């Protein structure tokens, strides 16, 4: 099934991917079906009327959690006035429900056999991604008088799909069927309820989703309305900004995920379809992007990551004391340790970023209680930076997986196999140290010094952290500067040799503050120069490098989230024009994706393409792409917490027009910010 006719609805980590008719016919390698907690609970869901498949007339995307399909019998080759029309309405909210409506437009009565084929392969999402077909447990089907039970068991790991319906269908091992008689102009309706169950030891049901019939479906709608109402309002003369902002808010609502241990509190899942779960790096960076708009996500994220912080040495999970997790999974392969994500700690940057988020959160909210609550975890994270992450003894953060079978090889955000290279295109040995992570470590120490001095009553620790940060900055600017290119190396190899390629990572260095001020202008020029900036955004790797590929995952594509932090870094160092240039390119690109920025898109020069070229397997929606427009708004308006107040210093792109952001929450209560872009004089002259 191609991307063009794929329909998606979701609520947290429960989602449905289907055809434009509403049907599901999954293959072992396609992420189609009903998924929840990393398991596919429906792999077949096919509706027929009198043995005939249905043809789609139209599809309504009602909300992120519900959709409606308008269908007629027969295929689309020759349209004949249909005597029947069929409407399928469905919603997800932890489980799945579908409402069938059939209308008889004929002048005479009709008798119909309405059948739904239903089955599940109970594939783990990792098995789908890796195209692993063989299941080690037993798939079973139980036909009962009032329901169909599909199940899978392997030891005490059990997953079940329980299907029931109004109108009393006949159930069999492959689905269920209704016998329907309709008089002229009469309509028939049936509701179908699909409950997903994750059964743990002792028969305990681990499901944490909602039922979506009746009041619960209205509750989802009310929750979305409340989510939007609580967020700041954005008005703009340029319609794309307000529309993109609203799309982002809705997608953030869709991606909210409540882990089993949180009792209803939510944090952002990383992205559909592969990453609908908790990620350390992704969740933290998304929270940093969205903090001025949805600060409640940050508090939840910090608490859950702190509760799951590494406490021991575990080579299988790449766990160390103090390390913040990379990824948490709930499926079969994690349960039986066929992969290490229960949780897995193979992220080199989540740990310093945890400290960065805690400080930034307090600056915005004034939530001193959380800073004090997480003091122990913050100190453990700082200890990890110094004691466990410096694998070479050079004072930098390095990574090398200890789980060589199923652990991640590249543990930075550019985690594809060939993302780190020398100028000649060859790949360095391990361990590796990437430049942006050193910036994060510097920033973490500077921020933690403030927390220690102001809230932890430990001025000596604050002084120590500031000395360490200053030494790191001096050392970094000596070892990482590529003199003949006037930029910072992407990485160092274990011998200290530079991976001397020009990459987008230098923008993260500006954001962290580790760059010496006299070098910032060179970086700004690179970031908006023709090798890195395509016109739509900053490429991950510069044109002309040996591994440059405009559709290479981390070697030339444009990642919206990456650009948002680059723009923030440019503002920090006093380059608002360059930041506005990047913001303008990304927001222009968003209009071609109906306001929903994908994970990545092609790095082709803008003059070659009338629209940004989509990366073929990009996640959408994806949390940190969804957060991108929010951080760009903050950057363009120059929103920064300052001494308990909100500072506003706008610099909009030329021709942007007026932007209003109303009711920005923070320790100051709620305030408004206004900005107007400069006129485009060239257009006025025309």
In short:
The protein is α+β, with helices and mostly antiparallel strands and 686 residues long. The chain has 18 helices and 29 strands. The longest helix has 21 residues, at 459-479.
Would you give an account of this structure?
- The chain is α+β, with helices and mostly antiparallel strands.
- It has two domains: 7-205, Beta-galactosidase, Chain A, domain 5; 231-676, Glycosyltransferase.
- Helices cover 30% and strands 23% of the residues.
- The strands form eight sheets. The protein has an eight-stranded antiparallel beta sheet with strand order 7-8-9-10-17-14-13-12, with no helix packed on it.
- A hairpin with a 2-residue loop joins strand 1 (7-11) and strand 2 (14-18).
- Helix 5 (296-307) packs antiparallel against helix 7.
- The relative contact order is 0.08.
- Residues 10-192 form the Putative glycogen debranching enzyme N-terminal domain.
**Which spans of ≥5 residues are poorly predicted at pLDDT below 50?**
208-212, 681-686
In which order are the strands of the major sheet placed?
Answer: 7-8-9-10-17-14-13-12
CATH topology of the largest domain: Glycosyltransferase
How many DSSP E strands? 29
Distance between the termini: 47 Å
Radius of gyration: 26 Å
Total number of helical segments? 18
CATH architecture of the largest domain: Alpha/alpha barrel
Helix content: 25-40%
What number of structural domains do the residues give?
Answer: 2
What is the CATH C-level name of the largest domain?
Mainly Alpha
Tell me the structural class: alpha+beta
Q: What is the residue-mean pLDDT, rounded to a whole number?
A: 92
**Major sheet size, sense and barrel closure:** 8 strands, antiparallel
Name the shape in a single word. globular
- Strand coverage percent: 15-25%
């Amino acid at each position: 099934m191609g991307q063009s006719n794929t329909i998606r609805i979701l609520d947290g980590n429960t989602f449905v991917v289907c055809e434009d008719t509403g049907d599901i016919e999954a293959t072992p390698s396609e992420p189609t079906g009903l998924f929840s907690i990393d398991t596919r609970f429906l792999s077949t869901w096919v509706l027929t009327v009198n043995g005939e498949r249905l043809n789609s007339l139209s599809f309504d995307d009602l909300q992120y959690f519900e959709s409606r399909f308008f269908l007629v019998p027969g295929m689309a080759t020759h349209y004949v006035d249909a005597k029947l029309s069929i409407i399928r309405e469905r919603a997800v909210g932890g489980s799945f429900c579908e409402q069938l409506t059939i209308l008889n437009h004929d002048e005479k009565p009709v008798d119909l056999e309405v059948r739904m084929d239903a089955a599940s392969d109970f594939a783990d999402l990792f098995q789908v991604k890796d195209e692993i077909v063989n299941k080690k447990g037993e798939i079973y089907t139980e036909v009962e008088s009032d329901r169909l039970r599909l199940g899978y068991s392997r030891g005490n790991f059990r997953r079940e799909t329980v299907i029931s319906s109004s109108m009393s269908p006949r159930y069999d091992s492959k689905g269920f069927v209704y016998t329907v008689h309709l008089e002229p102009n009469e309509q028939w309706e049936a509701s179908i309820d699909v409950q997903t169950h994750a059964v743990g030891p002792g028969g305990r049901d681990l499901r944490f989703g909602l039922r979506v019939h009746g009041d619960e479906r209205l509750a989802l709608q009310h929750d979305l309305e409340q989510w939007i109402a609580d967020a700041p309002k954005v008005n703009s003369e340029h319609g794309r900004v307000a529309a993109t902002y609203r799309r982002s808010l809705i997608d953030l609502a869709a991606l909210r995920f409540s882990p089993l241990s949180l009792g209803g509190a939510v944090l952002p899942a990383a992205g559909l379809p592969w990453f609908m779960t908790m990620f350390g790096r992704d969740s933290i960076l998304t929270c940093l992007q969205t903090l001025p708009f949805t600060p409640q996500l940050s508090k939840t994220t910090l608490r859950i990551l702190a509760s799951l912080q590494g406490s021991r040495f575990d080579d299988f999970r790449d766990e160390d004391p103090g390390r913040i997790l990379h990824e948490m999974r709930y499926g079969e392969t994690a349960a039986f340790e066929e992969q290490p994500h229960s949780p897995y700690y193979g992220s080199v940057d989540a740990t310093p970023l945890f400290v960065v988020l805690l400080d930034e959160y307090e600056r915005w909210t004034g939530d001193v209680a959380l800073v004090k609550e997480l003091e122990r975890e913050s100190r453990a994270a700082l200890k990890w930076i110094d004691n466990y992450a410096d694998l070479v003894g050079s004072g930098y953060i390095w990574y090398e997986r200890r789980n060589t079978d199923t652990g991640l090889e590249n543990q930075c955000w550019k985690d594809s196999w060939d993302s780190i290279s020398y100028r000649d295109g060859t790949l360095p040995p391990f361990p590796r140290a990437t430049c942006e992570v050193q910036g994060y470590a510097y920033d973490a120490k500077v921020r933690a010094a403030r927390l220690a001095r102001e809230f932890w009553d430990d001025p000596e620790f604050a002084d120590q952290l500031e000395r360490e940060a200053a030494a790191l900055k001096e050392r970094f600017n000596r070892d990482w500067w590529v003199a003949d290119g006037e930029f910072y190396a992407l990485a160092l190899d274990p011998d200290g040799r530079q991976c001397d390629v020009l990459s987008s990572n230098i923008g993260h260095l500006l954001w962290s503050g580790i760059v010496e001020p006299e070098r910032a202008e060179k970086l700004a020029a690179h970031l908006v120069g023709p090798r890195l900036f395509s016109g739509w955004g900053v490429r991950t790797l510069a044109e002309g490098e040996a591994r440059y590929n405009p559709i290479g995952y981390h070697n030339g594509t444009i990642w919206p989230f990456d650009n948002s932090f680059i723009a923030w870094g440019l503002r920090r160092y006093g380059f608002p024009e360059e930041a506005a240039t990047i913001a303008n390119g990304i927001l222009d690109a968003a209009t071609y994706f109906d306001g929903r920025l994908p994970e990545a898109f092609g790095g082709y020069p803008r003059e070659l393409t009338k629209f940004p070229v989509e990366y073929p397997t990009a996640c959408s929606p994806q949390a940190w792409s969804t957060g991108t427009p929010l951080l760009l708004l903050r950057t363009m308006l120059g929103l920064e917490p300052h001494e308990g107040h909100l500072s506003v210093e706008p610099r909009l792109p030329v021709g942007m027009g007026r932007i209003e952001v109303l009711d920005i929450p923070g320790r100051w209560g709620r305030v408004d910010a206004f900005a107007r872009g400069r006129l485009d004089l060239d257009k006025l002259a025309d």
